Amino acid sequence: MKKIALFPGSFDPFTKGHENVIQKASKIFDEIIIGVGENSTKNSLFSLDSRVRHIESIYATTPDIYVVSYSKKLTVELCTELGAPFIIRGLRDVKDFEYERSIAQMNHSLERHIETVFLVTDPEFNHINSTIVREISKNGGVIADFVTNSEILVK
Amino acid sequence: MKKIALFPGSFDPFTKGHENVIQKASKIFDEIIIGVGENSTKNSLFSLDSRVRHIESIYATTPDIYVVSYSKKLTVELCTELGAPFIIRGLRDVKDFEYERSIAQMNHSLERHIETVFLVTDPEFNHINSTIVREISKNGGVIADFVTNSEILVK
Amino acid sequence: MKKIALFPGSFDPFTKGHENVIQKASKIFDEIIIGVGENSTKNSLFSLDSRVRHIESIYATTPDIYVVSYSKKLTVELCTELGAPFIIRGLRDVKDFEYERSIAQMNHSLERHIETVFLVTDPEFNHINSTIVREISKNGGVIADFVTNSEILVK
Amino acid sequence: MKKIALFPGSFDPFTKGHENVIQKASKIFDEIIIGVGENSTKNSLFSLDSRVRHIESIYATTPDIYVVSYSKKLTVELCTELGAPFIIRGLRDVKDFEYERSIAQMNHSLERHIETVFLVTDPEFNHINSTIVREISKNGGVIADFVTNSEILVK
Amino acid sequence: MKKIALFPGSFDPFTKGHENVIQKASKIFDEIIIGVGENSTKNSLFSLDSRVRHIESIYATTPDIYVVSYSKKLTVELCTELGAPFIIRGLRDVKDFEYERSIAQMNHSLERHIETVFLVTDPEFNHINSTIVREISKNGGVIADFVTNSEILVK
Amino acid sequence: MKKIALFPGSFDPFTKGHENVIQKASKIFDEIIIGVGENSTKNSLFSLDSRVRHIESIYATTPDIYVVSYSKKLTVELCTELGAPFIIRGLRDVKDFEYERSIAQMNHSLERHIETVFLVTDPEFNHINSTIVREISKNGGVIADFVTNSEILVK
Q: In angstroms, rounded to a whole number, what is the distance separating the alpha carbons of residues A21 and A28?
């Protein structure tokens, strides 16, 4: 049976850190679906459509990696619809870890068959943080060092 | 002299984790007042009135546990008005701990006679987090596993 | 019914931070027993006997605060023997918090009627750490700023 | 190709928390090898032989889960010998997370093809900590609530 | 060559904790420029103009400490304009530390010659937190214990 | 006046992470003295003499960087003897940060004129941890990726 995993996130924007997570996850799973979510409480800097196209540009020629967008839906529901019993999350720092642990445990409460797998990036990507990338972009800085194909992103 | 403690929070919503804190605190204090605050910087998902009625429904028949709401008032002022020299706070994770420590220390600077007591929930409630409960509720998920009498809450 | 609490620790040595915890706890509980433990895995710098006499010297004239020593016994057993259903612990930093949370939860698993209450010191005592006090003492430094009656302690 | 993962640890002792990690990992990997290590810097409470037999007793009838012991060998070397390109680690708290992240990143530096996968236990196992289990055992407490088949373990 | 450092922040408001950082930094650097930033994502409680005048009032007679305001500009750009290759940041707690580490590392990626220096306040200022000071001020509390010349600040 | 700083540590062994800290510190200070300490509670893997010669080999031709060893002496005493009012410490993770903050604050209590300056390494060195390097070395692994001139170190 094919092992399918969902990598959900707002990806505002998708960074080289996220790419590094996908690269590691693709050794473990047979198929990976990147789920780009509309965040209900925060405005995103880049439009949902632009974020999806940006990620598609990175994986255009990579087999077994797909991109979907979703909104007003639980992550565990999306997993069920997609037949993906695994959720992938990258861990960068302690703050991430605690929040992700709670979400993983609550998702498991909602759907007992869904498990979350955590990966840490290689050290050279550890400091890349979408929040700070957005701040740099808003203040006119160049983000190409942190984001592949950054020219595709539209604010 | 009766030992009276205030358990302040936004309780948006009041979860089984909060219930577990109250259960432990009621062994220590003679009377507990649950203070439901209007958060000045964030919009709440459930109305203040609905949050108060929800908590009242849980403790309707429990003696020595009361519910009040407050806004535009310091927590230490509310303590003084209520004759409650103790503040109860639940600690779930590291992020909580650091913020709560600063608030406890600043409250003690403002009113030297007020002390804060911290409790940790039993492990099975450790992951229950109001922020994630709200996300589940907003996305149409069922929150009854995490919140007693959740049908009373009105968005 | 009198509310009795145990404050267990190795107190190697008992610092002004611990004193600050006792001062806060004495507002909440009717009687406090300071339990000085023999640590099974680490050698202490100050002898168990010296640590007990040091703490007794600090509370010689304070009613309702007692000192006992214990070894080869679970903390929850000591609580049961002493009729103390509450455990007091001071929280200084994140590392403390996580370890203390696990111990509190495991103690509660072992004896369901025992609850742990956490207190944070006032800011001016937050940095006082027995491990560092020991290092200073071992290297010939003066520890009187951090430890009351430090001249009583014998290595 | 079969996906084989190593779950290394000192397992002094193997707890219900570790069991929970194995249960989750067995959904992801085709074969899991539990590697019981001799810790070079700390004395273990239970003998290496006893720890191995204890874990074997738990998985005696479970297919695709094996137990090996190792000493004076890098974890990445053991992976290579066993043909296991994945390392499984459980994350319980923040302290774990930071140390595990460094080890995972250093292991990846040593052998670029080896990836570490992190799992978090379900909330009811989150507080179970081998260090505290050892303390309980040393002080004569009963550890059966935290360790399956604990009667097999020999100090 | 004169060593010039920038101390950037939103300083909403500038607290006694920030003063303590400046006092320490002034022993290390020859000249310090306090850069008051307009935060692009959060509304400030005190106006930018009021925040600048408040800090100027504190350092009116101190040589080698200057105040500037900036907006829509990267911190590293401001450093370059001012000829300040050092950034000073205060560290209060773990949450600060992780975010500050990422920002320092990303700033160093953007401009390799810029280094960030971290200082921790003395213990008696460790709990002073601008976010909590703002909450106190919004709810009508007195902030003079935490902020020098607080009467100058205008909401 | 020349600004002299002490970089104290056990350096068991001195890694590329430490080198990165020195490189940054040398932009701030005029002279740096690396103080190699004998740890009173832990056995070191590499001899004190070997650790000193190893570090000297790295900075043999670098002006204004010196190496000393010390034992049974407080760090602040060494600072006073050397005329170095600044202490440099590298911060890698949260656990480091909390311990280092306490030590910095206690050192400042002991000698009010001594200040500690914290630096974070560049991301590619963030995971290099002497404890893990020692584990690798003890188990026969090659540490040349993490330690310059590692062939000079003698166990």
A: 11
Q: Tell me, yes or no, if D42 is annotated catalytic.
A: yes
| Average pLDDT estimate for F94-120 | 93
CB D125 to CB B125 under 8 A? no
C124 in E contact zone (CB under 8 Å): yes
A126 touches F at CB < 8 Å: yes
Task: Work out the percent of chain B whose per-residue pLDDT is above 90.
Answer: 90
Cβ distance of F126 and A125 shorter than 8 Å? no
Q: Which of the four pLDDT bands, split at 50, 70 and 90, describes residue C40?
A: low
C63 contacts: CB under 8 Å, gap ≥ 6: none
Give the nearest partner residue to C127 out of F73, F74, F102, using CB atoms: F102
pLDDT, tens digit, for every residue of E30-84?
999 999 998 766 789 999 999 999 999 999 999 999 999 999 899 999 999 999 9
User: So what's the pLDDT on residue B41?
Assistant: 63
Contacts with B127 from chain D: Cβ below 8 Å: 123, 126
H helix or E strand, kind and range, residue E33: strand E31-37
Phi first, then psi: what are they for A11, rounded to 5°?
Answer: 45, 55
Give the C-alpha separation, F39 to D76, whole Å: 30
- Enumerate neighbours of A (3 or more CB pairs within 8 A): B, D, E, F
What does the H/E/C string look like for E35-101? EEECCCCCCCCCCHHHHHHHHHHHCCCCCCEEEEEECCCCHHHHHHHHCCCEEEEEECCHHHHHHHH
SS (H, E, C) A96-152: HHHHHHHHHHHHHHHCCCCEEEEEECCHHHCCCCHHHHHHHHHCCCCCCCCCCCHHH
Q: For the residues F93-107, what does the mean pLDDT come to?
A: 91
Q: Are F74 and C128 a contacting pair at CB < 8 A? A: no
Q: Is F138 on the interface with A (CB under 8 A)?
A: no
* Nearest CA-CA distance, residue D43 and chain A, Å: 30
Which whole number is the average pLDDT over C127-132?
92
- Tokens for E132, please give them: 């909590």
Beta bridge partners of A5: A32, A86
Quote ipTM for the complex: 0.94
Among F78, F155, F76, F89, which Cα is nearest to F120's? F89
Please indicate if any CB of chain A lies within 8 Å of the CB of D117: yes
Judged against a pLDDT cut of 80, whether residue E148 lies above it is answered with: yes
Distance of alpha carbon F65 from alpha carbon D35, whole angstroms: 45
CA angle A7, E98, E104 (to 5 degrees): 105
Task: Enumerate residues 6+ apart whose C-beta is below 8 A from B12.
Answer: B39, B44, B45, B46, B51, B130, B134
Put simply, the answer to whether B106 touches E127 (Cβ < 8 Å) is: yes
Cβ atoms B60, B90 nearer than 8 A: no
**Any idea where the domains of chain E sit in the sequence?**
4-152
pLDDT tens readout for residues B47-81: 999 999 999 999 999 999 999 999 989 999 999 99
E54 a catalytic residue: no
Q: Does A1 touch chain B (CB under 8 A)?
A: no
| CATH classification (class only), C4-152 | alpha beta
Do the beta carbons of residue B134 and residue B45 sit within 8 Å?
yes
**Rounded CA separation C49/C154 (Å):** 9
| Shortest CA distance from E120: residue in chain C | C127
The residue ranges of DSSP E strands in chain B, in sequence order, are 4-9, 31-37, 65-70, 86-91, 115-120
Mean pLDDT to the nearest integer, B114-139: 94
Cβ neighbours of C95 in B, within 8 Å: none
Q: How confident is the model at residue B40 (pLDDT cuts 50, 70, 90)?
A: low
| Contact call for residues F31 and F3 (beta carbons, < 8 A) | yes
